[in-house]
Amino acid sequence: MVFSRLFSLSAMYITLIFLCGGVGSRMQSSLPKQYLPLGEHPLFLHGLTPFLQEKRILHAVFVTHPEKKPLFPQHFPHSFALPGARRQDSVCSAIAKMPAPTTHILVHDGARPFIDLATIARLIDIGSNEDAAALAMPVASTIRQVGPDHFTEALIERSTLWEMQTPQMLRVDMARLGATRAEEKKITVTDDVALAELAGGRVRIVTGSDRNIKITTKADYLFAQYLHEKAV
User: Fold this and answer.
1) What is the predicted pLDDT for the residue at 231?
2) Contact predicate 208/115, CB 8 Å
3) Strand, helix or coil at 20?
4) Are the CB atoms for 77 and 144 separated by under 8 Å?
5) CA pair distance 46, 208, nearest whole angstrom
6) Residue 27: its pLDDT value, please?
7) Predicted local distance difference test score (pLDDT) of residue 7
8) Based on C-alpha coordinates, what's the Rg of the chain?
């Protein structure tokens, strides 16, 4: 059993899929949110750097538009993929560009600049033994289901609810099979581990961090600037 697990870990080949193809329409900015400045560097680079320090990540696929390629680090083994119309299309585009030995993918949003190396390592430690695993945080607020007439229909028990984050880790065979089934059933998924579920896999939740915010609105960007300045 011990030998089997050691062999499994030694054979693991993780490819990072770093999603940087969004247009940032909700920011109402001419520059996509992931390329906005945060201190001295583009916002996306803050989130990318810790992944390049994790020794178990052997390759990165940067999903971006061609004109943005020069902004990405050149020292790390990498390839580029074009973004698709939907998130799952971008992930599939990246899978087509990753090295053949890849056993697991680690998908992260370029608009999450505050991920850290210790959290990435913890996700890999746990996710390497699962079909899929993802960072998430328990929901703190009261949640109500509301009908189209804006009257409440139900109070949702929040103890079972978690807000999903990235990175998310999947076995690559699960990602491929899930993407095929999503295409066959015309399903659009909003997070990556849903592909593993479509393939019949189970998803392990790993507690994330309150700091691992996604920059979506102008208010998020202002908060990100505050967090960055506070950390410097």
Assistant:
1) 84
2) no
3) coil
4) no
5) 17
6) 64
7) 37
8) 18
Cα dihedral: 85, 86, 90, 96 (round 10): -90
Q: What averages of pLDDT result for each successive group of 10 residues across the chain (232 residues)?
A: 40 96 70 94 98 98 97 97 97 97 98 98 97 97 96 94 98 98 97 98 97 95 95 78
Task: Indicate the SS3 state at residue 39.
Answer: coil
Residue/partner pairs of 217-223 with CB below 8 Å, 24 or more apart: 217/26, 217/27, 218/27, 218/28, 218/29, 221/27, 221/33, 221/36, 221/43
Q: Which residues pair with 57 in a beta bridge?
A: 14
The Cα–Cα gap between 155 and 76 comes to: 48
User: Closest Cα to residue 21, out of 145, 111, 106, 92?
Assistant: 111
Tokens of 122: 């913890």
> Can you say whether the dihedral through the CA atoms of 71, 79, 64, 136 is positive or negative?
negative
Following DSSP, what letter does each residue of 74-134 receive, concatenated? SSS-EEEE---SSHHHHHHHHHTTS-TT--EEEEEETT-TT--HHHHHHHHHHHTTSSEEE
Percentage of residues of the chain with pLDDT beyond 70? 93
- CA-nearest of 58, 96, 112, 110 to 179 is 96
Residue 47 has a pLDDT of 98
Dihedral angle over CA of 50, 83, 112, 169, nearest 10: -60
- Stated pTM of the model: 0.92
- Residue 209, CA distances (Å) to 107, 110, 143, 229 in order: 17, 16, 20, 18
pLDDT of residue 138: 97
